[in-house]
Design goal:
The protein has about 240 residues and is α/β, with parallel strands linked by helices. Helices cover about 35% and strands about 20% of the residues. The protein has helices at about 15-25, 40-45, 65-75, 90-95, 110-120, 160-170, 175-185, 195-205, and strands at about 5-10, 30-35, 50-55, 80-85, 100-105, 135, 140, 145-150, 150-155, 175, 215-220, 225. The strands form three sheets. A five-stranded parallel β-sheet has the order 2-1-3-4-5, with helices on both faces. Strands 6-7-8-9 form a four-stranded antiparallel β-sheet, covered by helices on one side. It has a three-stranded antiparallel β-sheet with strand order 10-12-11. The protein is elongated and about 55 Å long.
Length: about 240
């Protein structure tokens, strides 16, 4: 099969894993480059930017989380799938907070990795066509991938921005976790829906920084909705079925 699915950079300090993934991903239609550590990965990305990055968390020297933070600090939105041998919540959270888009625990099936990579590639930003999205004092600019509360810029990760933009496009409409997983993460197979809750939590902290009123609400048992703050809203949670 030709390598038409995109260029994947596989970064892992285990040579056997690199060889196995390189062979398997090539057979699955990807072009593949490899790097043995974080420093080599950053150098290779500068030379030939990949379409998607498979990045081991626990590498000596420059760890995967640091590679991801470095890319995001450069405003590099290359999709990143983190690999780790540790199935611990703290490790998953560390990878996501560093800016990773997805997380896979070793050992894993190649078929699942391929599905997740295709899902990430489907979520690459389309060519800019949208106007500014406005929800009360919140402005979301899909064209430049920026968001502002009045004149203050909100510094969001790639996934946080995509989630906010999806909610802003549907302001006032309650979106279910399943719908957000499909539209923001693009998965077409079974995944944990608590990924949505995790990123809503990250996004809400940034939106409400400095005592700003709440605009991102949880509707219990249904999903999430973005709506302008009501007059006199000081950001406290609401009563009833939404919070």
């Amino acid at each position: 099969m030709g390598g038409s699915a995109g260029l994947v950079l596989v970064v892992d300090d285990d040579a056997a894993i690199r060889r196995s993934l390189e062979r398997g991903l090539r057979l699955s239609g990807f072009r593949v480059a490899v790097a043995e550590d974080g420093a080599a990965a950053l150098a290779r990305i500068a030379e030939l930017p990949p379409d998607v990055l498979v990045l081991d968390v626990g590498m000596p020297g420059v760890p995967g989380t640091q590679v991801c933070r470095t890319l995001r600090a450069r405003a590099d939105d290359t999709p990143v799938l983190m690999l780790s041998a540790l199935d611990e919540t703290a490790d998953r959270v560390a990878g996501l907070q560093a800016g990773a888009d997805d997380y896979l625990v070793k050992p894993f099936a190649l078929e699942e990795l391929v599905l997740r990579l295709h899902a990430l590639l489907r979520r690459r930003p389309p060519q800019p066509t949208e106007d500014v999205l406005r929800v009360g004092p919140l402005r979301v600019h899909p064209e430049t991938r920026e968001a502002f509360w009045l004149d203050a810029e909100l510094r969001l990760t790639r996934r946080e921005f995509e989630l906010l933009a999806q909610l802003a496009r549907n302001a006032g409409i309650v979106l279910s976790r399943e719908l957000l997983l499909d539209r923001v993460w693009g998965y077409d197979f079974e995944v944990r829906s608590d990924a949505v809750d995790t990123f809503v939590s990250y996004l809400r902290r940034k939106l409400e920084a400095g005592g700003r009123p709440r605009v991102l609400h949880t509707v219990r048992g249904v999903g999430f909705v973005l709506r302008p703050p009501s007059d006199g809203d000081g950001g406290a949670g609401e009563g009833g079925s939404a919070r």
